[in-house]
Amino acid sequence: MKQKILILITIALMLSSGCTLNKSTPTQSISNHTNKSCQTSANGFQTKKIKKSYIPKYNVSNTGGNFSNHDLIYFIMTDRFYDGDTSNDNFPDVNKKDAKAYHGGDLKGIIKKLDYIKSLGTTAIWITPVVKNEPKGYHGYWAYDFYKVDPHIGTMDDFKNLVDEAHKRNIKVIMDYVVNHTGYNSPWLKDDTKKDWFHTKLNITNWSDQKQVENGWLSGLPDLNQENPEVRKYFIENALWWISKTNIDGMRLDTVRHVPKEFWNEFAHAIKEKYPNFYLLGEVWNESTHYLEQYHKLGIDGLTNYSMYNGIKNAFTRFGQTDSLINAIKQETNFSNPEINGIFIDNHDNMRLISMAGKHGKEYLKQALTFELTYPSIPIIYYGTEIGMQGKSDPDNRRDMEWNKTKKSDILDFYRKIVDFRNTNPALQTGDFKLLDYDSYFLSYMRKHNNSSVIVVMNLQNKNKNVTINVPQNNTKFKDLLTNKTYTLEHNKLQLMLKPLDLIILESN
Ligand SMILES: [Ca+2]
Ligand SMILES: [Ca+2]
Fold this sequence. Notes:
Number of helices: 14
Family: Belongs to the glycosyl hydrolase 13 family.
Oligomer: single chain
InterPro entries: A-amylase-like (IPR013777), Alpha_amylase (IPR006046), GH (IPR017853), GH13_cat_dom (IPR006047), Glyco_hydro_b (IPR013780), Malt_amylase-like_C (IPR032091)
Bound molecules: calcium ion
Strand content: 15-25%
EC number: 3.2.1.1
CATH topology of the largest domain: TIM Barrel
Pfam families: Alpha-amylase, Malt_amylase_C
Keywords: Calcium, Carbohydrate metabolism, Glycosidase, Hydrolase, Metal-binding, Signal
Distance between the termini: 87 Å
Radius of gyration: 25 Å
Structural class: alpha/beta
């Protein structure tokens, strides 16, 4: 009796303090727009306390597996890349004139273009999700059946062939994988045995409320309930099944921040226990390095570095300001393994950089590509960036690959030159990265390994600028990769007259 009264008092106190039992009823916390949770103090009273960050249950080895900063990932939206098999173009939702319908690209198309892909210095491809989608799910993110390959893009045999053919060329394959949600019309929504597989339908309205971010329905997509052990088991088994069936080398994990941390820790542990060399690349769409690093600590190897992306798009577009890029570079110390993160200038969720930059798009794209390819992380090149494809917001940033431009393109020639340099220069392969002098509109940095060094200088404004850069080394002679012009260091100082939007890439002689 005494115990019953005590329980009733405890519940009453909890309700009066506005607390929710957010562990057992996760969806309730969505209406509670705070990051606080309830804890029982030593004397039995409830106190409000800021929630501590999640402490991982499993210690997962996540140093990149078969991946390192020597890799270069080419990211392909399969439906928009190349149509290698017209026999799968007869579905009613294939319409090349509709930017939101299927366009006919497929896995066989990627196989046919592997030599081109290899010629870009690619060591790995990341392809959009292959699972069977609901109608119009050309991008792959509206899953209908997690155990089937979508017939628009091919068959399981096509996928296995793609992996085999890629491996023959020393190209690894990364499969895009979604556990946060199903498509809008998943058959599970009508399945009585799967009633507890989804969170209660609620929109995300407060993006600083992590519970809401995890349990709300992102863009109205049915949100899977990973607190349910059946759901966790299903997806861990499903992921292991794909790896064992296809021999893929990595997964790009979609919408990571929208899934509870407990799940990712268990998922990474299960995958790495069986496949220690497997690479997990997490999409965590947040500009804070501290926020991103939390997900590395769970066992995910690399993260899509949105902190750096924010810097890149502020530096190499019409803003032409280095401040947030410098800040992002300084913040890299918050990562325990920044070199296995992915850095990018374009992707399928953002306006292409060349379009964002506008008038001086080509010059800024060249600077951005140079930064991406000379920075010690894993560059992720979104298909078409190498030929300077334009693209505004989704779905315009997912135009069909413009194959005619691969025959003659000033940007492609430039890209190849920088990629070759990246893959052969010892300083760019293993050298340290050091910021040299900079201000809000100009940037210089150095990579150095033993006697080899590279200095990159960029003028982000459309006007002349004279700079004197302090260089902490004794090498006196440098040659510009782009113009062959030679420069001499005097008293550890490099004097340069920069032209508008200039880009100088110096290699020690
Ligand atoms: Ca096709
Ligand atoms: Ca979720």
